[in-house]
Specification:
By secondary structure, this protein is mostly beta strands. 14% of the residues lie in helices and 37% in strands. The protein has four helices and 15 strands. Strands 2-3-4-5-14 form a five-stranded mixed beta sheet, with no helix packed on it. Strands 9-8-11-12 form a four-stranded antiparallel beta sheet. β8 and β9 form a beta hairpin. The termini are close together.
Length: 213
């Protein structure tokens, strides 16, 4: 059983607006690294990410920092499009009867369009799929909705430095081809270089976990 703590010893002083938007996060020219958005991840998803990546920069909520996280081997699933930092979307093939959904995403305060917002279809289990797209420079997006989601679809919107959001598009709106207008709010996330410390547990604690979990 693995345990770890996550911290950001020195929060980044570069304004978020000065970082270049890109799918899955932003690029900071100051440290020449991609800033990964962890704000929408579970503890298990973060643990799985840090097993394969070190020395990264990220955006985390204060509630995700400076506490002990315990591995749960039974919950290892993670959406690749979110964890990899580089978007790997599966675009549904255009076919007969498919509906194309369009929309625009902007900042709730300034009303400025937001570029590179990740827009993913959510499955019936409430998990973001890899079917989706990202917003353009003017904040717009276009997404072909597969047949199985045309009775109504839920979208997950994620953007580093902003609160994750889910919206439901009912069947009537899809068939009417009405555009979607969505606003995202800035979050209280902390940006900076991430320090991950693994906590060693005693043999008795490991045995007790296996016996009584």
């Amino acid at each position: 059983m693995k345990k770890l703590t996550i911290s950001i010893p020195e929060p980044c002083t570069v304004p978020l607006q000065n970082m270049t938007p890109m799918p899955g996060g932003r690029y900071c020219s100051s440290c020449q690294k991609q800033v990964i958005d962890f704000t929408g991840m579970t503890d298990q998803q973060m643990m799985a990410y840090f097993e394969k990546h070190q020395g990264c920069c990220g955006s985390l909520l204060p509630s995700q920092l400076d506490r002990e996280i315990v591995e749960n081997p039974g919950k290892r699933w993670m959406p690749a499009a979110i964890l990899a930092g580089v978007l790997a979307l599966v675009m549904p093939e255009s076919g007969k009867g498919q509906i194309k959904l369009t929309g625009i995403v902007h900042d709730s305060s300034s009303c400025d369009p937001l570029m590179a917002v990740t827009v993913l279809i959510v499955d019936q289990q409430g998990q973001p799929t890899r079917i989706g797209t990202a917003t353009q420079e003017d904040g717009t997006f276009s997404l072909s909705i597969p047949d199985e989601y045309q009775k109504g679809v839920k979208l997950s919107l994620r953007y580093v430095g902003y609160e994750p959001k889910e919206i439901i598009i009912p069947e009537q709106q899809l068939k009417a081809k009405q555009p979607v207008y969505c606003e995202l709010k800035m979050s209280a996330a902390v940006l900076g270089g991430i320090s991950v410390v693994y906590v060693k547990s005693s043999w008795w604690k490991r045995l007790k976990y296996k016996l009584f979990r």
